[in-house]
Amino acid sequence: MTAARAYVPDRVETPRMPAAPAQPLPPRACDTHCHVFGPYDRFPLWHPSSYAAPDAPATRYLRMLDTLGAARGVLVQPAPYGTHPDALLDALAQGGDRLRGIAVADPSVSDAQLRALCDGGVRGLRFVEARDPAGNLFPGSVGFDQVAALAPRMKHHGLHAQLWAPCDTYLRHLPALAKLDLPLVIDHLGSLVPARGDQDPAFQLLRGLLADGRLWMKLTLCRVGSAPDYENARFLHDAFVAANPDQVLWGSDWPFVRMGESAPSADALVAVAQRWLGDDAMRRKVWVDNPARLYGFD
């Protein structure tokens, strides 16, 4: 296999920026799922990307949070950076205590490197089981089969595992992963397919593990529901909130890679969540209390 080499992308897209939400977020609200890319002269990519690289450096990301009214944020390292955390750590340093990070590492990572990630604000590692038609992991990803090898050291350092995969993949992997005594966070509403309804085995598995307190769920709508109102995914959102309101999180997914002109505005996603969560107590739980507990915000 050819070793990864850093490169500056030929084409860069400017991500959609939000307006201020009509109904403000609660104080200390957290957007738990965003990504930073660049500046590419300082932080080039390391792996081929299936999407146009966004012009989404830390400065633009922090402006996005400020406009949205989110006092806190969690950055997730995207696959084109592989296991190179420089862009992530630089953004975390710029944001100070308002930010936390999710990095990518494989079992070759040293304890010193894990300590450095934690010291820099990282609170979890991301594992991806999305594959191309040939069965290969997306370049730069670390698969679910690596979680068990890293789990003891992750527990020692207080790190959780963030998981992203097509929904049916969880049926094969989650029963074993849930036995590792490691906090698990599921991306993007489990990548469920709303048309399958509430009898979908993947939905039932995820809801059951969430209800048992064995995983956390990100209520990230934009890749599951249909814009602009996302009503076809509401039953998934509401079922997860009802199953365990103490272990659900909200994330926008800015800068909405792969979505192009169909990318939503983050303030529109906030408006949907404001309506669906229903009352201020639940909004505080999802936007403030739950992320503070998982990511260690003061």
Automatic annotation (TrEMBL):
Molecular function in Gene Ontology: 2-pyrone-4,6-dicarboxylate lactonase activity
Keyword Repressor: no
Keyword annotations from UniProtKB, A to Z: Hydrolase
Domain of life assignment: Bacteria
Disulfide bond recorded as keyword: no
InterPro entries, alphabetized: Amidohydro-rel, Aro_Compnd_Degr_Hydrolases, Metal_Hydrolase
Name assigned to this protein: 2-pyrone-4,6-dicarboxylate hydrolase
Source lineage: Bacteria, Pseudomonadati, Pseudomonadota, Betaproteobacteria, Burkholderiales
Chain's gene name: ligI
